[in-house]
Amino acid sequence: MACFLVPSTQCRIQKCTTDFVSLTTHLTPTLDGFDAEFCKALRAYSACTQRTAKSCRGNLVFHSAVLGISDLMTQRNCSRDGPTSSTHPEVPHEPCSYDSRIQHAHAQARGHGQAHAHGHAHPRPGYLFCGLFGDPHLRTFKDSFQTCKVEGAWPLIDNDYLSVQVTNVPVVTGSSATATNKRSPGRHVELHAGYIGVRLIVRQLGRYLTMAVRIPEEMAEAYDASQDLQLCLNGCPSSERIDRGGHLALPPLSPPALGLQQPSSSRRGVGTPLPRASPYGAPRVLDVREARERCHEELEVPDIYFHSCVFDLLTTGDTNFTAAAASAQKDMESLHPHRDHWRIYPRDSAPPAASQPIARLALLLLCSALCSLALV
Question: CA-CA to 47 of 20 to 30 Å: which in 5, 17, 148, 254?
Answer without folding.
Answer: 5
